[in-house]
Amino acid sequence: MSLRLVSRRGLASPLLRWAARDSPMPFRSFTSSTKSSTQPNGRYVVAVGIAGAVALGAIAAAYSPSGRTHCDTPSNLPIDKRDAIHKHESGITPSSPMRLKMEYYIKEKQKEIVTALEKVDGKPFSIDAWERKSSGGGGISCVLQEGNVFEKAGVNISVVYGKLPRAAIVKMRADHKNLDPTVESLDFFAAGLSMVLHPKNPMAPTVHLNYRYFETMAEDGSTQAWWFGGGTDLTPSYLFNEDAIHFHNTLKEACEKHDKRYYPTFKKWCDEYFCVKHRGESRGIGGIFFDDLDDKEPEQLFSFVQDCLNSFLPSYIPIIERRKNMPYTPREKDWQQLRRGRYVEFNLVHDRGTAFGLNTPGARVESILMSLPLTAAWKYMHSPAPGSREERLLEVLRNPVDWV
To answer: How does this protein assemble (predicted)?
Structure first.
């Protein structure tokens, strides 16, 4: 495949490999709620030569006795190969499968978010493109360590094709009755954008974001079951009411564009999910969280997920700009380290996504554990001073607050 990549930090090789796997034709807008991303970032600009069509045609020909290479994609192709041909021949259009529209969208949002965070920090992210050789898919991990503002920041996307074993199918049927419990395995697709930012300054809060789409497919590639999941939540070491109110208000506005019930329902779900049960406290001051969301038409829920993702920068950038240069003491830094210890405890003990990832064959451990802070601490029987800001935070974590 003939490719030209403009790279500003010698990152051509991994990005060329990623681009070569599924270089889509120019995207055609499929929903009015999709906002255009930032101007093209040099590290992501890929030009695909005509040889790309030949390469993808060869894939189809290898699986098809008739050697067909047009839109009548051979049904005996693996689903990830069929999708690659679809993207090359048709681009991403309103009639494209939802999995391809979600994949395109999270790639664009990753570029937009990374560009915005680089402006805040002043240092560039490193970019690591990877592939799942055992089956299909891969991802792009954008990571910043020991920056000017962020001690550790990661903005990852993953696009995964694979097979669900019978045990996983039976477990998922609790929420998705249309899954066939008699089959030994099912093809599945999962795409998501996951992000965690750990600032240096203890006055600046950690933030977590994850939005994902999952579907299972029949042998002919048709969708059998599908759902969206995700959320955004804030974890401060020192509580500022104005930050909490702003963060929750922004999420509430995104939710109410689609359903008045979403914010209170998903806020409560977030408070319950991000609970460090063995400590009897929440990980942070919440946000929204939802999973297995399939109660409306796919396009409606896709639009909702887009609005949630679009709300991230307006919800967090004003907060980090206010707090990144605030003065702090060594004692306050020590408290931040203890709070990060709680963050680690939740992620390794309670988080379902971490457990699922680490127990998935061929999983990329570096990307899964990207969410952990660079540093953390534990002290035996530590308790904050009565009446202190630290004690006030604990009171809120033990008794979640309705911020809006």
So the answer is: Homodimer.
